[in-house]
Amino acid sequence: MSKSKYRAKIWTPEFIIIFLFHFIVMFSMYSTLVTVGSTAIENYGAAPATAGFVASVFIVGVLAGRALTGYQVNNMGAQKIMYIGTVFFFITYALYFIDGGLYFLIAVRLLNGIATGVISTALNTLATVSVPPERRGEGISYFSLSMVLGSAVGPFLSFLVLEHISFNTMLTCIGLAVLAVSLMLPLIRINNTMRPEGAPRGRFVMIDKDVLSMGFSVLFMGLAYSAVLSFLNLYAIELDLVTAASMFFLVYSAAILMTRPVTGRMLDKYGANVIIYPAFIIMAAGFFTLGQAAAGGVLLLAGFLIGLGFGNFQSVAQAVCVKIAKRENVGLVTSTFFIMLEIGLGFGPFFLGMIVPFTGYGGLYQLLVLSIAAGLVIFHAVYGRHEKKQEI
């Protein structure tokens, strides 16, 4: 049978809406993540450690939301979960505007994090099933840009606008943006494969055992990257490179935006190995370079290398997880992938912070090359050495 010159579309109206909604939810998450700590200090006199907890407790909520949702996506369908999460998001988001004190703010952060985790798991599932199977790697690569853009544009704009408006005004603007996009959700008609009506549901599970081993590779990579999120600013102050550090994540995002469309097509055509092994090596080179940074240009070069490495690892690893699991478990697989990633991102700084007094920030970044190497070894053992067919 001859191939048609027309390929099945990825950027359908439904995919675009799913992409936009995930972007604006991630934008909301990262905008508050980097600004709520200073608000807690200014409004409630919180200690720096407590202010950090006010910010990071959101990630605990996201983890809880994903853990509770992955199993239910298979039973209820991602579309219904998306609506439940959206309603819960707006209810918990409205609580930000009640001045109930520091502990109330912590509770609000936790609850809004749960809502965000529920929405993100549902949207990732819908995006995965909406793209043509023969272009799944490319589709996941494109969709994951919604998180990349949200994590880069959110902090950048929030720092910018807080020079001129209050935290509550910023929250209002973000909430209206989320509301505007959510009005398009009824146009999403696709849904994931669910268990047949009346079929036994089995016991509740939070982790898909088929992808758990691959998940440890994701965890070690997330652990390494958590040091960038948590300690880059302190490292830059120590080196007197604050101006360059302010551009780090823009360069990081640019590296991903430049390469994701290409690596997504390569993934579908040649398989995961041709992308992910170089990604491990490039990320390790980025961390080694970051540990040696003595000038702004070197710091930004490290950002570019880490973007090439970690940015492309994420999308390829997610596609691999979807491939090696059962098709009907795509929701649980998506949840498992992000749970393992966010365990590394969320809990990494706590443990790595204990090492800093002995290594310094530069030494820590170089030491984390070992974490990246561990991720590579696990990937090779679990999937890389077995990959035969060129399909994801």
UniProtKB/TrEMBL annotation:
GO terms for cellular component: plasma membrane. Keywords: Membrane, Transmembrane, Transmembrane helix, Transport. Gene3D superfamilies: MFS general substrate transporter like domains (1.20.1250.20). Residues 14-389 form the Major facilitator superfamily (MFS) profile domain. The chain crosses the membrane at residues 12-33, 45-69, 81-98, 104-127, 139-161, 167-190, 211-235, 241-258, 270-288, 294-317, 329-352, 364-383. One of its GO terms (molecular function) is transmembrane transporter activity. It is found in: Cell membrane. This is Predicted MFS family arabinose efflux permease. It comes from Salinicoccus kekensis. It is a multi-pass membrane protein.
